[in-house]
User: Fold these one by one.
Assistant:
Number 1:
Amino acid sequence: MTTTSAEDLLGLAAELDAHAPLAGTRDRFVLPEGIVYLDGNSLGALPKAVPPAVADVVEHQWGQRLIRSWNEVDWWGAQTRVGDAVGRLVGAAPGQVVVTDSTSVNLFKAIVGAARLRPGRSVLLTDPDSFPTDLFMAQAAARMAGLEVRLATPAESAGAIRALGPSLAVAAYSQVDYRTGEKWDLAALTEAAHGVGALACWDLCHSAGAMVVDLDASGADLAVGCGYKYLNGGPGAPAYLYVAARHLGDFDQPLTGWQGHARPFAMETTYEPAPGITRARVGTPPLLSLLGLEAALTAYDGVTAEQLRAQSLSLTGTFLEALGALGVDLPPATPRQEERRGSQVSLRHPEAFAVVQALIARGVIGDFREPDIVRLGFAPLYVTHVDAVTAATALRDVLAGRKHERDEFRSRGAVT
Amino acid sequence: MTTTSAEDLLGLAAELDAHAPLAGTRDRFVLPEGIVYLDGNSLGALPKAVPPAVADVVEHQWGQRLIRSWNEVDWWGAQTRVGDAVGRLVGAAPGQVVVTDSTSVNLFKAIVGAARLRPGRSVLLTDPDSFPTDLFMAQAAARMAGLEVRLATPAESAGAIRALGPSLAVAAYSQVDYRTGEKWDLAALTEAAHGVGALACWDLCHSAGAMVVDLDASGADLAVGCGYKYLNGGPGAPAYLYVAARHLGDFDQPLTGWQGHARPFAMETTYEPAPGITRARVGTPPLLSLLGLEAALTAYDGVTAEQLRAQSLSLTGTFLEALGALGVDLPPATPRQEERRGSQVSLRHPEAFAVVQALIARGVIGDFREPDIVRLGFAPLYVTHVDAVTAATALRDVLAGRKHERDEFRSRGAVT
């Protein structure tokens, strides 16, 4: 295998960075010195807009204005206002997204709500390789809503949906697999579900903010996602729930907290859902975290989903090419075809945990996922092509070091 | 009616403040100039410990250390660590309280969990005068858990519990009525529920942090409460859930998110609850808000629940006495007997909304509750006796002004 020098690759990467359409957005983030951060798909980096915004919420809105801020700065409208800002990133027209609760709680609301929109249908179809909370909440929702959970991978889903036919209530899938980074066809799977009269519910945790997510145009029915990965809302930032406008009038969500009521301050004793997506609100939202997310989303100002996708593919492509050029020969779990690739590259290694630790020791932060995955995320707003090549070089060195250690160990073993 | 001058009353109040055992804790808060803040039972004031703590979470823990903070500063353990800090204020030994989600979501978990602890029992008993979300979530939980909701006020509850007997699964009540400020007997109602083999679930939103709440000693089974009223955790701070240790092993909560799993990072496909209260966690918590609450709770350092209760009764007592001395003759909705009084005074007035607005215009912030309640909360950590007298004086002036306006209006009406 011919290899290229790391210096040459870094030079080419610097060229790409200089001409990338999103090059300027990195300046919107605080990034620690000397770190290549490839874990923005687990916790996004800190946008510069956040610290002053959160300080204002704490010191002025809360500290000085106290209870008056509910009206003065419209804390009351924050969940739907920030929802619309998220909507812009996931192809949702205003009035269909609310920021509230965690992804897990929103999944419960979405799946039970879907079952109630499709009474008489008994099956929830989902992916056995889902992120665990998706499976657990699917089981929890199914248990309470009287559904049966059936499993089929996205690749098997079209056949499974046809076979289930009119018994299928809802198909719940992730657009991008959290582990392999494989991107699935949201529009096609949605269409297959609609073909048998069922609904499609999407988890966007690993796609929103890094690619084109076209909920309205794809006809998706429901979707959820978190605020703290590519959306950079900070640790545990509240999650969001999308309900397509055509379902909102009948959306009967199971967690009927007072903030979802039509007249919350009338203090009525029976529940009447608010019109529109407001009915998906539950309790009082954590405003420091929610308004931190609102400030964070300004890092996307002026950026289109198409630009994000182009930058993301350029970054993951550069990384994959650099691995090849540097002679790093690890089997990728992420598809090489662009249309099937999310915004991460996952590589398999039998000692993946140790490899990730060694990368971190060299300043390249990614993460390990069971059982054998080195997972590297490429957040298009702030990761650079130079970062991608630096990470590939570090990985080459880590693997060479591990090989050297193994050889040392074997040769010492032979002596004693 | 004999009246005393406001000056005399203020002098006496200043004396009380100078000798109050909790006088020093007001310095732990930021309070805006010129404001008497009697709405800490809706949104607590800002503790001075919070701004630097939140700035550290945002700028250092998130911004510089990024994903590493989950382990380095134990973000992972925050929900149970802060839970134990709340536990100290509600008479709960460590390991029984978790801070997570909203009060509404925790009520859902508690009531469904209670139903599953008492299979074969069909009734949920609750208060028709509950805060709306308590009623709505009771209805939501009952609908999904197959329970029937029956209503009885706390005063009627002992008879209702006896009549329901073995059909009662759980009695869900608030320790203090959010509207009238009446304090109910947590231990007696709990004992009545236990008398028929049922469980007692308590909403502590309007009691925790302002009085003695003795969950363990009273034998309470489950409890919930918010973090943003007397606990001062900031707008929408996460709520908490208490499950008595004896129930934890069998507590089968309905929202089985990944953070409640026994091994969250093993990425297993079937749910196995973590031991202990950790199983009541659901999704990733909003850490800016959660760690803000943790810092806020340090305002309670060195303060006992008995001191809080003594100060609270002294403040509400001073306010009620000042009203009498100033000749303000509004019917209180709050009981005069100390053992039945929460940490607020609610007064009835046919134009209560306008009265509250006029008080706010004079710098005394309380709130209006439907249909005719002027509600004034006395947070014992930072409200002073001088505040109490100032508020009573302002109320006297507002009512006199309104009477004057009415007389003016009538006399002008007579002229035209």
Note: Chain B touches chain A through 84 residues (CB under 8 Å).
Number 2:
Amino acid sequence: MTLNTQVQADHHAPPITRILAEFAVNHPSRGWGAAVDHEAHRTFANWVGCALGAARHETVESALSAVMLLDPSPQSCVIGRSERVDMASAALINGISSHTFDFDDTHLKTIIHPAGPVASATYALADFYKLSRRQVLDAMTLGIEVSCRVGNCIYPDHYDRGWHITGSTGMLGAAAACARLLGLNVDQTQMALGIAASQPVGVREQFGTMTKPFHPGAAAKAGLMSALLASRGFTASQRALEAPRGLIQTYSDKSDWREITEGLGERWEAGLNTYKPFACGIVAHPSIDGCAQLRRDRGFVGSEIERVTLRVHPLVLELMGKKTPRIGLEGKFSVFHAAAVGLLFGKAGIREFSDEIVQNPEVIALRDRVAAISDPSMREESADVTVELKSGVSHHVFVRHAVGSLEVPMSDDQLRQKFIDQAGPVLGLEAAEREWEGLITPCAAA
Amino acid sequence: MTLNTQVQADHHAPPITRILAEFAVNHPSRGWGAAVDHEAHRTFANWVGCALGAARHETVESALSAVMLLDPSPQSCVIGRSERVDMASAALINGISSHTFDFDDTHLKTIIHPAGPVASATYALADFYKLSRRQVLDAMTLGIEVSCRVGNCIYPDHYDRGWHITGSTGMLGAAAACARLLGLNVDQTQMALGIAASQPVGVREQFGTMTKPFHPGAAAKAGLMSALLASRGFTASQRALEAPRGLIQTYSDKSDWREITEGLGERWEAGLNTYKPFACGIVAHPSIDGCAQLRRDRGFVGSEIERVTLRVHPLVLELMGKKTPRIGLEGKFSVFHAAAVGLLFGKAGIREFSDEIVQNPEVIALRDRVAAISDPSMREESADVTVELKSGVSHHVFVRHAVGSLEVPMSDDQLRQKFIDQAGPVLGLEAAEREWEGLITPCAAA
């Protein structure tokens, strides 16, 4: 027992559970700057788009058909489908669909995908109780702040240990958001957070299976149920997060409490959210961005290309080194495929990682001419791309930060295009455009 | 024991997830000795009694009223009540009620309360699908074996870290049991275990709150849902339990795989179940037993007592060190209160941990005269009790093993009396007697 957490248990942690409860209850509606509020709009809109894009995926079909065995009451909407299910199950399913394509948002400091758990719980509850868009945006922003600050407190030890931090912090953000929406007082919200603290979801071994997107869904459901329980007088420890045998010290050897308390309500992690422009692992994004830039700026077509050379951080080949992917899912783990579609289509969305495109002869022909050099001197966020044409002309670009990073965020227009790409096939193009406008239009404080 | 699991990650663990799936699917009905099968009958009967005893407790009222907000379908029985709710919610509520009084069963090697998660999930599913008592007993026995063997694999590090091992292994046993009941094949059952592996429930900081009994309930629900998901094709890692970033290496620095594989299907942890004669944490049972023995054998009354001294294993004060409990629930975490009621009433059932008794002046007066000495040389299962009377006479007893231990198990008749004490007020005395007979009557193999 000598080296375990109890020996160094911190008995003097600040009252984190209480502090977060007070924050979630008392912080005023839209009590943050315009930039953070715009980011909240983008976060919610991007979450809706991702959930729509996967609404008919087999992962969602499977989960929904299991939920249907419970004969749920039609309380809340399953996004992009006609079914309605009870609030808790809606939180589960929408959380699953929003993360199915690994195409959602990322809080880069912790690799948390914050909307999956928090927006899914918020929306399910708000849909049933007919709450306003402003209430949703307020609750979601506060909930994301809770998840990401707890994430900052425990990252990286917690993640290194094996937890999928999105699901293992998400139930806290979801509980805070739902408590806010239900109008719980501080004591009740403290209980909601406490109940949620017993329900972390997800280990990293599940990556590559349906259980990965299950994590944000299950965290959303757990948080929502925790708030409902607290609203009915259910109790938990008042120090469920910070006590020596509370959640944080149990599942992480690092607990930097200042990451939670410092600047709470002033400095916003929720304002640091980013969105994936490409539907694959983030390490390939600089390469794809470089390829898409060359295509756009240099005006060549695929058949003119003799050879492509990527110089990348070693992690890229470690995570995405598949030379000859055969199906869409394998394409997501091939930087060669990713570069080829960047050059041929100028984008790398869900369609570009479908079986059809991965098996397309033109794509395969170009993919086979892509080489990648693992270079430890390259930074993870950068890539160096050289395209040699058959004509003998050579084009080169160095991407310091890919689009979608904090330094080069996706523009509203790029995010809109991503949304339309996902929502269009489900809603129809015109309805998708209208939906986007509705989601991105600024929403006044309550 | 290392500071960080990743440093010494075990990449060569046996295929535990697969092995347990094969076991849960292929082991024959009643494929164990008569003694183990009788223990299974006792386990299930004791679980029913505990759930009945708490059916009207505020913890259950609160949880059930939260579940009712979801407008659940009346699929399965809430034990001891007229309401019916969907299968998953029934697993939750019955798991909560069965553990509300901390009066259920214990696998002493790990301090797991196995029936709470496993029987609750099993019964909820079986009630809806109208499965036989034999199917329930088979599934429960196999599920308990899964929970307890995983518990053996990770105990004590996992528990020391802060996990409430009942809820953090229970979802695996519940998933295995439900997979068995649903007739899933080995591949599907492996997925059910995998999905469950992302949903451990509970930290020890919650002890003394409603969230403690929530743990077995939530684990039951998670396991049941995992089996339903697997039945509909939902996927998880095939090595979700044993991989370096699977559950076991993520939430425990100890992973002794042989505890899972050795003698599986031959030697039965499920046969080692024990039942609490006293309605509080097991670590106080030797002290209570000693106090009750002295009262019975020495014939003094409370007002004669000058001072009581307990010499106990350090864990007793760590878990039950509350000096001045104010309500019944807190009394359960006070070895001082437990000793006082043992001396005053000769028992420590549900009534002795009620608000009324915890606030009783005579009890308080005696409780304040109880001292406890933490002695690392004492074994956890033993206690040394000295009662000094005002007359100057001193009485002493050393309890090697308390009643309810493996060495001094509760007899069938004692277990029956415990059942009637709990079931009688809910069902009526005659119906309670009939129920007991039905539950304890041997059930032939299918």
Note: The two ends of chain A are 52 Å apart (CA to CA).
